[in-house]
Specification:
The structure holds 2 protein chains of 2 kinds.
Chain A lengths: L1 H13 L1 H35 L8 E8 L11 H8 L4 E7 L5 E7 L2 E9 L8 E2 L10 E5 H7 L8 E4 L2 E9 L10 E3 L1 H8 L7 E6 L5 H15 L6 E6 L3 H42 L1 H9 L4 H35 L10 H28 L2 H6 L2
Helix pairs in contact in A: 1-9, 2-7, 2-9, 2-10, 7-9, 7-10, 9-10
Chain B lengths: L1 E10 L2 E11 L4 E5 L6 H8 L7 E6 L2 E2 L5 H11 E5 L10 H11 L7 H11 L15 H13 L5 E5 L7 H16 L3 E6 L2 H4 L4 E6 L2 E3 L2 H7 L1
Parallel strand pairs in B: 3-8, 3-9, 6-7, 7-8
Antiparallel strand pairs in B: 1-2, 1-4, 4-5, 9-10
The chains are: A alpha+beta, B alpha/beta.
The complex binds adenosine-5'-diphosphate and magnesium ion.
């Protein structure tokens, strides 16, 4: 086999210019194929990595959003999780939070209200009081202007406020800008962790599905169930949150680009194939004498066909390899403009080489067959 | 070695060969003479299993190859026959060594000693040191030696030569004929086409073709005229 490939190299080398021109189409085609695969692979790779989970395909997230202003204790409860996990097709349910905020009840004298609570941020601008970093034993609290307004009529500083049974001293008041989001109160980091971390607002329920189950259907059922049975059905709304949604539009643009490149690849491979066929026809008719000689000295017609087929495939594979190198450079350039990294996988390289081989086989077949079928006596008359 | 009975061949309406009867014994050296266009090549192509479209019967070693498939035919050509042509028919982009090696590439005989076989025939035809040369770097006589080396590398029983000296001067022709004579003396059957009577003298026997008919001596050819 190696000697047959060497023969092919030799014959191709004899007509370098002609054969290189023929290869151009394959080079462009294969480079395009490689780009498509690299972009596609890079995209899926980034998407799956971005989700931090490899089986996103079998996961749906139900989101809860309170409709009234921070009036709930919790989003999803363990009860809700139990209901959701009983839906056919759901393996297990995990409750999660999109923020780290805890929900609690704050009271002053007879007044009680639900609040969102978080640990003290590094910087906070106060309108009243003075800001300092509280340690864990500190029972200080910073509250928002609106909460201060709700609970206390006059000055709130240094007043005592009860949060889920623990007493805190108001150390400062901050305002929340109209474009800003802040919880209603901040407590010391350690205190937050000890007292409230298990009260973090669960606004997401992640349903892990059995393989092959109907995502859409189960999502609908889950939302319906929550609407009728969810503990917070009156204070908020439930919906299927689609993590793909953000990327959907992007995927569409990407698809357009991919189709365009695929179109270029297809056209150039077709033109390349026709070029290969043409050059093989020329080769075969130029080498009738050689065919005759080989036939007279023992080559069967399939030996001849294989010789030209191998030549055609070698021609295309050389083009394919150059195309892969070219495609690699192209991908490096494209990566400068893409929001993610296109990656060339081993699979893409193997596929590119297979495509080149296929072009060589398909378009080399008819000329090679012609060579194999030629009448021997006629061939030997050639000079 | 071979027996031809009532063989005929037509190209369309044109009859190139008619009623050919010929027997060649093992170890014989036969010359076929005749003017240009008389049908010499046509006959020899049939004998060499290069042309299968003829009428009548042709037995090579008592076997008819008329209905044999292409693969078997190719194998017989490669292993049992050796061809030498007037215009050498060498692969111009291949070296002397590579040209001689061609029949070995396709041979089904087990060859572990390919290199030795080639080196051996190169010595036999007196081309030592020219292995790497291209045909274009050789004289006509040397090129024909390459062609002979190629024809004998597979140790064929029968060598078929179509005007092997047709393109050579008389001195070189003599050298080539000496090689043929040696091969024949070593036991190889040779059938050679020529229109040079001096060359034909190297053969044991000469037959004559005129207008597609075969004659066993020159006299009967003249009678025909
Ligand atoms: N393929 C062919 N088609 C038609 N006529 C042919 C063909 N080959 C040979 N001939 C004719 O057959 C006759 C014998 O040809 P050939 O055997 O080549 O002659 P020679 O070798 O004796 O010079 C010639 O008249 C030639 O023109
Ligand atoms: Mg002739």
């Amino acid at each position: 086999m190696t000697d047959k490939i060497l023969i092919a190299f030799k014959s191709i080398g004899k007509n370098k210019n002609r054969n290189f021109l023929t290869m151009l189409g394959i080079i462009i085609g294969i480079a395009s194929v490689l780009c498509i695969l690299a972009i596609g692979d890079g995209f899926t790779h980034t998407m799956t990595k971005g989700m931090g989970n490899h089986d996103t395909r079998n996961k749906i997230t139900i989101a809860y959003e309170p409709t009234t202003d921070v009036s709930t204790d919790n989003g999803f409860t363990d009860n809700d999780a139990d209901i959701l996990s009983k839906i056919p097709g759901v393996n297990r349910v995990k409750l999660a939070s999109s923020s780290a905020e805890a929900s609690a009840k704050a009271s002053y004298k007879a007044k009680t209200t639900s609040i969102g609570l978080n640990k003290q941020p590094k910087h906070l601008k106060l309108v009243k009081g003075s800001y300092f970093t509280m340690d864990g034993s500190d029972n200080g609290i910073y509250i928002s202007e609106s909460l201060a307004h709700k609970l206390f009529k006059e000055n709130a500083i240094n007043r005592l406020i009860t949060i889920d049974g623990s007493v805190f001293v108001v150390q400062g008041i901050y305002s929340i800008g109209s474009m800003e989001y802040r919880p209603d109160a901040y407590v010391a980091k350690k205190t937050f962790k000890e007292l409230f971390s298990n009260q973090i607002f669960k606004d997401q329920a992640k349903l892990y599905l059995e393989a092959g189950s109907n995502k859409k259907q189960i999502g609908k059922t889950a939302v319906k169930k929550m609407k009728s049975l969810g503990e917070q059905k009156n204070t908020g709304k439930y919906s299927v949150s689609n993590p793909d949604a953000i990327s959907k539009q992007f995927t569409r643009i990407l698809n357009d680009v991919t189709y365009f490149i695929a179109f270029v690849a297809g056209i150039s491979l077709l033109i390349a194939g026709i070029g290969v066929m043409n050059v093989m026809y020329i080769t075969v008719s130029e080498r009738r004498k050689e065919i005759g000689i080989r036939r007279a000295f023992g080559a069967t017609s399939s030996d001849i066909r294989n010789q030209f087929l191998i030549e055609s495939v070698v021609l295309c594979v050389i083009g394919g390899i150059i195309g892969i190198i070219f495609g690699y450079l192209l991908v490096s350039i494209i990566n400068a403009f893409l929001p993610f990294k296109a990656v060339i996988t081993g699979y893409a390289i193997i596929l590119s080489l297979s495509v080149s081989t296929a072009v060589g086989l398909i378009f080399g077949f008819i000329p090679s067959n012609k060579a194999a079928q030629s009448e021997l006596v006629g061939l030997l008359k050639e000079e | 070695m071979l027996k031809v009975t009532d063989v005929g061949k037509a190209y369309g309406k044109f009859t190139a060969l008619e009623d050919i009867n010929l027997e060649v014994a093992d170890g014989e050296f036969l010359a076929i003479m005749g003017p240009s266009g008389s049908g010499k090549s046509t006959l020899i192509n049939i004998l060499g299993l290069l042309d299968q479209s003829y009428t009548g019967e042709y037995l090579l070693e008592d076997k008819s190859y008329k209905d044999v498939n292409d693969n078997e035919l190719s194998q017989i050509r490669g292993d049992q026959l050796g061809f030498v042509f007037q215009n050498f028919k060498l692969l111009t982009t291949y070296s002397v060594y590579e040209n001689i090696e061609v029949p070995l590439i396709y041979s089904k005989k087990a060859q572990h000693n390919k290199h030795e076989l080639v080196a051996d025939v190169i010595k036999k035809v007196g081309l030592d040191g020219k292995e790497k040369n291209l045909p274009s770097e050789l004289s006509g006589g040397q090129q024909q030696r390459v062609a002979i080396a190629r024809a004998i590398v597979n140790r064929p029983k029968l060598i078929i030569a179509d005007e092997p000296t047709g393109a050579l001067d008389s001195k070189t022709s003599k050298e080539i004929m000496d090689i043929f004579t040696k091969l024949n003396q070593a036991g190889t059957t040779i059938i050679m086409v020529t229109h040079d009577s001096e060359v034909a003298e190297y053969a044991m026997r000469t037959v004559y073709i005129r207008d597609g008919h075969l004659y066993n001596d020159e006299k009967s050819v003249k009678n025909h005229d």
